[in-house]
Amino acid sequence: MKIIQPAFAGTLESSDLQVRIAPNPEGVIDILLDSTVQKQFGAAIETLIREVLSNMGVESASLEIEDKGALDCVIKARVQAAVMRGADSQEIQWSALS
Predict the structure, then answer these.
(1) Are strands 29-35 and 61-67 parallel, antiparallel or unpaired?
(2) In the record, which positions carry O-(phosphoribosyl dephospho-coenzyme A)serine (predicted)?
């Protein structure tokens, strides 16, 4: 999927995260992560985000993520929602979401 517009998903409530995504003119994935559990799980969270982006075919995007201790399933759902909104896509590719 190609990110064509800025979009966001999620909240800043406890156990959630907010994902802001935008097109990246440099043609790479750029992730800025701010997490309450950064020291313990920052690397794992970033790996999961990159995996979701790869599964959805995103090759270029800038993401700003504020995590308040979200579980993996929430992280995946929020990233997927932000990608679909940023790509202005209504079509769900179920095989990419697993």
Answers:
(1) parallel
(2) 14
Look at the alpha carbons of 87, 93, 94, 98 in this order and tell me if their dihedral is positive or negative: negative
Average pLDDT score, the chain: 93
User: Phi then psi for 8, rounded to 5 degrees?
Assistant: -145, 160
- Is residue 70 a contact partner of residue 78, using CB atoms and an 8 Å limit? yes
Nearest to 35 by CA among 55, 19, 59: 19
Q: Are strands 17-22 and 7-10 parallel, antiparallel or unpaired?
A: antiparallel
Domains annotated for the chain, with CATH where assigned, are 7-92 (3.30.230.10)
Q: Which two tokens stand for residue 70?
A: 């979200």
65 with 89: CB under 8 angstroms? no
Instruction: Report pTM.
Output: 0.91
φ and ψ at 71, to 5 degrees?
-75, 165
The answer to whether 4 and 10 are in contact (CB under 8 A) is no
pLDDT greater than 70 at residue 97: no
